[in-house]
Amino acid sequence: MQNLDNLKQEITQEVAAANDMNALEDVRVRALGKKGSVTGIMKTLGGMEPEQRKEMGQTLNLLKTEIANVIDNKAEELKKKELDARLKTEKIDITLSPRFERRGSVHPLSQAIEEITAIFADMGFSVAEGPDIEDEFHNFDALNFPPNHPARQMHDTFYLPDHEGQDGDEARRLLRTHTSTVQIHVMQETKPPIKSIMLGKVYRSDYDATHTPMFHQIEGLVIDKNIHMGHLKGCLIDFIKAFFGLDDFPVRFRPHYFPFTEPSAEMDIGCDRSGGKLVMGEGNDWLEILGCGMVHPNVLKNCGINPDEYQGFAFGAGLDRLAMLKYGIPDLRTFFEPDLRWLQHYSFGPYDQPNRTFKG
Ligand code: PHE
Predict the structure, then answer these.
(1) What global pTM score does this model have?
(2) DSSP states of 195-209 as a string?
(3) Residues 74-101: pLDDT tens digits?
């Protein structure tokens, strides 16, 4: 018994002294392995008297379990130590200074969307969205385009090849040529009063310095009782003031034709081109800004709205063009070329606030 106590103490000390997993494993083999000290004593049980064997057997089993526990605890402790050491050495230095040349920035188009949305939100407009892939009903029919209107021609509109003519003309699908499609969705889905803007990509078969096959439009729709041209004018003049930061400027609503509005107009603002540079808001020249008009009664009817009860106005402008005018970008095509130098020059910092000069 005395020997066993000594042995236990000895092994426990060895376990305590082991300072890595290999050393601990050595201790384990020397005590509990096939030729280990404890195993050796177990083997002597066979030559004992039954009474003594029983007593010693119990004592030895207990000793074995105690030693195994001590070893297991030590193993846990060593593993934790190893992990702590690894965590210390493998630490990633997150204090590395940022590389400013790789900093992201806001595309001028996104900036324009932010600014325009903020201005119209101040006037109580919500933002509506619709799909880029449309049918002829939403792009043309509902908007009062006659069946033979030139805009429907193949060379202006991108039709989707797999649906071309398949289920008759009405089922043909196309890439929307204007955001007016969203007006139809909004009028079909919501009851007046309606006050929404729509912004997004539109597609036409065109390519030069001022036309790209994909570009962006901003459109607005107001439907309520007793809405008239005065509301249209006031709303658009306020928008131009806020967006371009102009206090006062010459403005004219020049009669025009759109199938979906009656009367229709184009809004021009005064500008000066005499110095070889465009100055907005003053001078003897005119700059066309957007299209607008009172929603045609047929369009209201096509969307289930009674034109005797409700009237409204709509307007639409090229979003890219508004951005070009405001930020002084000369070529539309550059918007869609991923040229980092261009982006560095024309883009905005992530924290630049949209300007909101509208105070009405
Ligand atoms: N949808 C017209 C276009 O693409 C713009 C517009 C919208 C004009 C709403 C009047 C009213 O040219």
Answers:
(1) 0.69
(2) EEEEEEEEE-S--BT
(3) 999 999 999 999 998 888 877 877 666 6
Q: List, for residues 206-239, the tens digit of each pLDDT value.
A: 888 778 999 999 999 999 999 999 999 999 999 9
Measured in angstroms, how far is the CA atom of residue 7 from the centroid of ligand 1? 97
Q: Which two tokens stand for residue 334?
A: 């550059």
Burial of 339 (0-12, 13-18, 19+ CB in 10 A): exposed
Does residue 286 contact residue 273 with C-beta atoms inside 8 Å?
A: no
Q: Among residues 199, 217, 354, which one has the least CA distance to residue 289?
A: 217
Atom of ligand 1 nearest to the CA of 143: 1
Ligand 1 contact via 184 beta carbon (within 6 Å): no
Cα gap 8→10, rounded to integer Å: 5
- Which class would CATH give 108-346? alpha beta
| Every domain of the chain and the residues it spans | 2-89, 108-346
Task: State the closest ligand 1 atom to the C-alpha of 220, by its place in the atom list counted from 1.
Answer: 9
